[in-house]
Amino acid sequence: MSRKRVLITGAAGFLGSHLSDRFIKEGYHVIGMDNLITGDLRNIQHLFSLENFEFYHHDVSKFVHVPGELHYILHFASPASPIDYLKIPIQTLKVGSLGTHNLLGLAKAKNARMLIASTSEVYGDPLVHPQNEEYWGNVNPVGPRGVYDEAKRFQEAITMAYHTFHKLETRIVRIFNTYGPRMRLNDGRVLPTFIGQALRGEPLTAFGDGSQTRSFCYVSDLVEGIYRLLLSDYASPVNIGNPAEITINEFAEEILKLTGSNQKIIHTALPKDDPKQRQPDITLARKLLGWEPKVSRTEGLKITFDYFKSLSPEELLRSAPRFA
Ligand code: UDP
């Protein structure tokens, strides 16, 4: 029996590597692709010996060639943290726009179904709470997050255009804050930052007054939602995330407790355009996919902390992202 073939871009990243694992487990032939700007081959090194896994070191902002049949394309290549957007803004814009265009062209040529990784950032600093898929968002196109937010909004637009004009089979997942093993320790996102600070014996830096909220989804729940969405027949955007909302101050307290740290929480400047609140409305995903998150924050944070603890002390101390 020949295996279904799936191309996963951003395969060496946090989400891409977990998706690669899942599709391998489901018996697919997985073709991973990554330019390794923010990805790390160590996230997928355990897959290299498998006959149903192959890897291309390639930047999808350039023409993408994949020999042979393709049944599915999952576009997960993109810098995905506010620090990354500031350091590599042009690449962030290109991978969401030019990269998406290249992959849609590939999907059309191969008659493949394409799923794109969109984001809660399309809602910007939301004026509707919790955010449902009907909300159009409140985004500053020229702010520091604009390069990511607008690339992702363009990505949704061009994907819908290929769907309506070329009749391409497409899926759009709007991903809310997700965490788990293989997050980059120094990507600036709140969870690895707090855990890194606790492990190094530093105070935890809550930005602003720490009253802003986020809702954190454990990675295996997200992957399950994406897998179900891909196999569904629904082309409009679907939120996938965990509605359990928490302030950043409360989150910092949880991390101190989890890590056994006796450090303080200090408050530093709030970055520009930092959304004040974020919580997914997952009514649609529940109805359409029969999906909802299963892993509690207590459970997920413990697994994630064990992962970070297993990293070498050198890695823990290394503070500059590799592309700096
Ligand atoms: N944050 C913080 N301290 C940090 C890093 C982040 O208080 O050291 C806050 C940040 O201002 C935001 C929230 O944590 O309100 C989540 O930030 P993250 O960068 O993880 O993702 P975002 O949801 O903002 O894209």
Protein model, in words:
The chain has 324 residues and is α/β, with parallel strands linked by helices. It has one domain (5-247, 252-319): Rossmann fold. 37% of the residues lie in helices and 17% in strands. The chain is built from eleven helices and 13 strands. Helix 1 links the parallel strand 1 (5-9) and strand 2. Bound molecules: uridine-5'-diphosphate. Residues 81-82, 177, 188-190, 193, 205-207, 212, 214, 248, 271, 274 line the site of uridine-5'-diphosphate.
The gist of it:
The protein has 324 residues and is of the alpha/beta class. It has helices at 14-25, 82-87, 89-96, 98-110, 146-166, 190-200, 219-231, 248-259, 283-289, 297-309, 313-317, and strands at 5-9, 29-34, 53-57, 72-75, 113-119, 170-175, 178-179, 204-207, 213-215, 217-218, 237-240, 245-247, 265-268. The chain has one domain (5-247, 252-319): Rossmann fold.
Defining key terms:
binds uridine-5'-diphosphate; alpha/beta; 7-stranded parallel sheet; 324 residues; two-stranded parallel ribbon; Rossmann fold
Blueprint (SSEs and pairs):
Elements: E1 5-9, H1 14-25, E2 29-34, E3 53-57, E4 72-75, H2 82-87, H3 89-96, H4 98-110, E5 113-119, H5 146-166, E6 170-175, E7 178-179, H6 190-200, E8 204-207, E9 213-215, E10 217-218, H7 219-231, E11 237-240, E12 245-247, H8 248-259, E13 265-268, H9 283-289, H10 297-309, H11 313-317
Parallel strand pairs: 1-2, 1-4, 2-3, 4-5, 5-6, 6-11, 7-10, 8-13
Antiparallel strand pairs: 9-12
The protein binds uridine-5'-diphosphate.
